[in-house]
Structure formats: C-alpha cells, structure tokens
Amino acid sequence: MMDEENKRIRAWFWLTNLPGYGYKKLAALRAAVDDVWELYEIEESVGQEKAEEFLRQVFSLSDIKYSDAQIGAFFDRSLKRRLDKEFEGLAASDINMVCIDSSDYPEKLRDIFDAPYILYYRGRLPEQNHKTVAIVGARACSEYGRSMAKDIAAQLARYGVQIVSGFARGIDTASHNGCLGVDGGRTFAVFGSGINHCYPPENRFTYDEIIQKGGGIISEYRPDTKPLSGFFPMRNRIISGLSDVVIVVEAGVKSGSLITADHSLEQGRTVMALPGRVTDVLSMGCNRLIRQGAAVITCMDDILFELGLSEVQNYSVNIKNSQIKLAKPEKMLYSHLDFNPQSIDDLIRKSGVSFKEAAECLVRLELAGLAKRIGGMYVRGK
Questions:
Q1: DSSP state of 342
Q2: Where in the chain are the domains?
C-alpha cells in the first residue's frame, strides 16, 4: 500500500504528463484541492460527469483556455494505465522522484514562481542548510574563463559550498570538474533533457563522478526525454532556483547564461559577474550585467562576502591534493596572472610590488605550478 508521499508523487507524475497541461492549468488544479491525490481519484470519487464539470469550472474561473481534447486526456484510462506502469518502473529503478508537495523537495526551489511540480534525479538533491552557488557561462569559452570557473568552484567547495550548473560544454563542465577535484566537494547538474541522456556524451565520466561523490543529476523531464533546444532555457530557472548566488563567468550578449541571470533577479537571488576586457565578445554579457547592477568579482572574498562567509579570508589554491597558502605579495601577483603573456614589468605595475619581491614570488609561483614562464613572459599555470 502506498504512503501519502508516494501517492502525491504518482499523482504529479500523471498530471505533468497529460498532453496540453502546462504550468497554468496545473497551478489552477492544485489550488482547487487540498491534496493532489484528490485529482487522481476524482473520477472514482464523483464520477466522470461531475469531475468534468469540476475541471471546466476551475479553468473558467481562472480564465484559462482549454479544449475538449484536453478534458478528454484527463479521463483517458488507457493513458493513465500506461503512465502508472511507467511510474512503477521508475520507482523500482535507481531514479528518484520528488514532487513539489514532498517534504524533501528543495525549499529554495519551492519558493520560486514557476517551480517544477516534479523532479527526477540520480544521486542526491542539494542539502537544504548548505550554501549553494550556481556557476554558468559560455559553452565556447576561453581558456581563461574555463580556468576561472574551475578555480572558483574549487575554492567554494573548500568552504563547503555546493556548486550547481547545467552540465553543458565549457564553463558548466569546468565548474563541475573544479568542485569534483576537491575532497568532499559536491556538485549538482541540472539537465535540459531526461537524466538517462548524458549530454554532451563526452561528459560521461563527469556524470558518474558527480553521483559517486555525493552530488546529483537533476531534471524536470521524464528520464528518457531527449535533449531539445527549447528545454535548456527552461532548466535555467531551476539552476538559479536551487542557488543562493549565481555567478556568470563568461557570456556573450545573447548567451543563455543571461537568461539564468534574469531568472535569478526575478527569484531574488544575488547575481555576480566576472569582468573582462571591453573588446572581448565573451565578456560583453558579463560587463553588461555589471553595468546593470550585478556584483563584480575581483577576488574570492567578494563571493564569500555575498555568502556570509567572509570571516574565512585565507586565499588558498589546491594543487594535486596539497594546499599552498599564498603570502600577500604572491597573492597579488597571482591575481594578475592570466593566460595572456605578461612581462615582469607589467605585473609590477599592476600589483604594486617591488622588482625584488616580484622576482622572488614568481619563482615560488613557478615551483608551485601556479605560474609559467614563456620566453621571458609569464602566464597563469593552474
């Protein structure tokens, strides 16, 4: 016999897979009953004629358009049997399901305007009482953007912050991998497809590692749903909805990451952006966000401050499982290194350290693998 929780999940599985029943229809039906299971059993309880009258009344009072075919789908017993069979198969598999009325549904996500009514996931959902940061950005990112996303995710993971992203190529993948490289780091991937489709396929190892290391693969779409372009903008609201802070690392002016930023603002989340050169196409979206009021990232402390973790100020970089703590001059120089070669004079001018300090610090950074020298010029190593 099913418990109340499983009844609600079964009911939402059925409702969310009725053809023609989108967010508005389902919201109106949910508001009209005390428990969603009442909708699942309404035909048995009062008969089809009264149940149909109830549906039409609910939609009319909410000024929602509907068709006879959509009303018919609600009472399609063959469809209901097929969906029940599919539900039972999922319940017996390694796929977990949670509905918006479940006690373990993520509270942060439940609070957004258009929260998904059901989630499918492998592994775990984010812990409710842990800080969570979304890191998003361009698929065709620069090496600098990839490195920064990885570094930021790794640094946050060391402070116990959960990382959420969208599993896409580029910034998303770098963020997941940066978190996974830290002992105890937990990251969560929100899919624009069903969770049985590892997309992009080259991320299969990352998919498995996310689950093995205590994170989760999450989607609002049925597990076998193939990735479609229209699904990816929709999943962005879940990425931001699960998070306390959303960080945009690199984005063009038409990037999907800006859709995530828009959702974040609508949901009352803090948006932060990594600034870049005004001439770089991949920085234009970030620079525009900053101009519109997004918090600018100049160092890790900026992010920690937004998370309320600013009392932990030690800037450290983890290389091959050993933690190297940077002294202040080294930290200054390292913060100015990127993947564009710079002379020692450029770094002195930017950092304000003396020539002697710069020369000594650069040697230490090279030995630590944090800087590389190429023909008398310096670039970031890790």
A1: B
A2: 4-92, 132-306, 318-380
3-state SS, residue 136? strand
Phi (first) and psi of residue 136, to 5 degrees = -135, 165
Domain 132-306 architecture: 3-Layer(aba) Sandwich (3.40)
> Residue 335 is which amino acid?
S
Per-block average pLDDT, block size 10, for the chain (382 residues)?
86 97 96 96 95 96 95 97 97 97 94 94 96 94 92 95 96 97 97 96 97 98 92 91 94 76 82 88 88 88 88 40 59 80 86 84 80 80 68
The whole-number pLDDT of residue 327 equals: 66
Helix extents (H) in the chain: 4-16, 23-32, 37-46, 48-61, 68-74, 77-91, 107-110, 143-158, 171-180, 204-212, 231-241, 256-266, 284-291, 300-306, 328-336, 344-351, 355-367
CA 237 to chain centre: 9
Contact 52, 75 (CB under 8 A): yes
Q: Among 99, 21, 104, which Cα is nearest to 65's?
A: 21
Instruction: Enter the tokens of residue 81.
Output: 């049997």
247, β-bridge pairs: 135, 272
3-class DSSP assignment, residue 154: helix
Q: Measuring CA to CA, which residue among 191, 26, 195, 4 is closest to residue 102?
A: 4
Pairwise CA distance, residues 122 & 215, whole Å: 9
Q: CATH fold of 318-380, please?
A: Arc Repressor Mutant, subunit A (1.10.10)
Residue 182 near residue 150 (C-beta atoms within 8 A): no
Using an 8 Å Cβ cutoff, are 156 and 269 in contact? Answer: no
User: How do beta strands 270-273 and 322-325 pair?
Assistant: unpaired
